[in-house]
Design goal:
Length: 165
C-alpha cells in the first residue's frame, strides 16, 4: 500500500532529473512506478494537489531580466489576447486578475523573460505587433529582486532528501 504522506514528502522537493522520475520515487518509497503515477492523478482529481509543473529558474538559464506586463484590456478581448500572448516562448505566464479601480485598471498580466531589459522590450514589441495590441494600455514592471522559487510545501520533514533543479 502506498504511503501518501511519504509520497508528498518526496514530491514537494521536486522530481528527480532522470528519464523515469516516477520509478525513482517509487523505489524510494517502496512502491511501483504505476502506483505513484496513479496516486498523483488521484490527488490531483481530489484537489489535494492543485498544480503539478515545473519551476524554471530563469536566471540560471541566462535570462537576467524579466518584466511583468500589465494590460488594461477590454473585457471582450481578454481571452483572445491572453491566448495570443501565451503562445510566445518568452512568456512563462499569462493570467487574468480583477481590476482594482480607481488605482489599478489592469486585468491581464504576462511575465516576459529576456537576457537583458532591451531583450524584454523587443519581446514586448513582438507581442504587441503579432497580437495586434498596439492600442491596448499597458505598463511594464521590471523585477529588481530575485526571490527563491519553489513548489508547494505540503509536509515539513527535515529528513527528506531534496531533488530537482
Amino acid at each position: 500500500m502506498l504511503d501518501e504522506r511519504q509520497l508528498l514528502t518526496v514530491l514537494q522537493h521536486g522530481l528527480p532529473l532522470v528519464s523515469r522520475p516516477y520509478a525513482t520515487i517509487a523505489e524510494q518509497i517502496g512502491s511501483t512506478e504505476q502506483e505513484v503515477i496513479d496516486h498523483i492523478a488521484q490527488m490531483q482529481q481530489r484537489g489535494d494537489i492543485k498544480r503539478f509543473g515545473v519551476v524554471v529558474r530563469h536566471r540560471k538559464l541566462g535570462y537576467q531580466s524579466n518584466g511583468m506586463v500589465v494590460w488594461d484590456i477590454p473585457d471582450d478581448r481578454v481571452d483572445e489576447l491572453g491566448v495570443c500572448f501565451g503562445k510566445f516562448e518568452f512568456v512563462n505566464l499569462s493570467y487574468r486578475r480583477p481590476r482594482r479601480l480607481p488605482d489599478w485598471p489592469y486585468n491581464l498580466f504576462c511575465m516576459i523573460h529576456g537576457h537583458d531589459r532591451e531583450d524584454v522590450m523587443r519581446n514586448l514589441a513582438q507581442m504587441i505587433d503579432s497580437c495586434q495590441a498596439g492600442n491596448i494600455p499597458h505598463a511594464i514592471l521590471f523585477s529588481t529582486e530575485c526571490y527563491k522559487q519553489r513548489g508547494a510545501v505540503y509536509i515539513h520533514d527535515q529528513t527528506a532528501a531534496g531533488h530537482g533543479a
